[in-house]
């Protein structure tokens, strides 16, 4: 039986890898793409998501969501990582279709009520849409199967500041709301995504397996790899956002650690995801937070092979 998912995303090159993985895997029924600001402004994220749906020749709703952080000014975005167009400056043509009329938060709520207990939210961008959906419908956690998040870090350093990962840093107050809710959360952060660099032959293999979708990833990832390869002897790339989807296909790929997590919102610790594994503290400040599961290790060869195999479907 397929797993119903909503991909909450800010495409973005690694988002593209994740979206195509979801499209290609027989494990998933993608109910829709809900977009958010993050790697790029939300209007660009929505149009990019629409382009990816059209490239895959699928009929899947794409919604536009939150454009600003829950608190604070507009983001400065990561065009230096993803290019001015979010696709590595490859000049991909604009989509011809139209966005769904519902906002991202409205779509999440509607699908949760339509399929109670069946929908997994796979959130691979800042968490503003989920925070807004919780405000609009406080009962939402009772309806969602689970939330799988690419973001944060339990023990590894941050990638925006010494302590903060980009998705959580971009909307720390929203993340605080989402992690404090009573739904089941699995977090896939820099502990595992930075632990697995991909060499150039990885995207070459994706393109060989699937010239259309894998070829798009290979082309877009050139700019992305340029960023990640600065100061290194060999070219590398990181595809952070596909990790939570891989977990849903084969959970045995990951070592998961249960514990309590708190999100920093003060200027110095903005976006820091401080993690206390079960049994490591008796502090009520930690124990009153819901338990979440954090990926702390990953099987490199098997995960890499899974990505390659799925692109061949």
Task: Please characterize this protein's 3D structure.
This protein has 13 helices and nine strands. The two termini are 17 Å apart. By secondary structure, the protein is of the alpha/beta class. The mean pLDDT is 95. It has helices spanning 13-24, 42-55, 79-82, 104-114, 128-136, 166-170, 172-180, 190-193, 200-209, 213-228, 243-249, 284-287, 300-311, and strands spanning 3-9, 28-35, 62-64, 119-123, 144-150, 185-188, 254-263, 273-277, 291-298. The radius of gyration is 18 Å and the shape is globular. Strands 3-2-1-4-5-6-9-7-8 form a nine-stranded mixed sheet, with helices on both faces. α4 (104-114) packs across α5 (128-136) and α9 (200-209) runs parallel beside α13 (300-311).
What is the compact description of this entry?
By secondary structure, this protein is α/β, with parallel strands linked by helices. It has helices at 13-24, 42-55, 79-82, 104-114, 128-136, 166-170, 172-180, 190-193, 200-209, 213-228, 243-249, 284-287, 300-311; strands at 3-9, 28-35, 62-64, 119-123, 144-150, 185-188, 254-263, 273-277, 291-298.
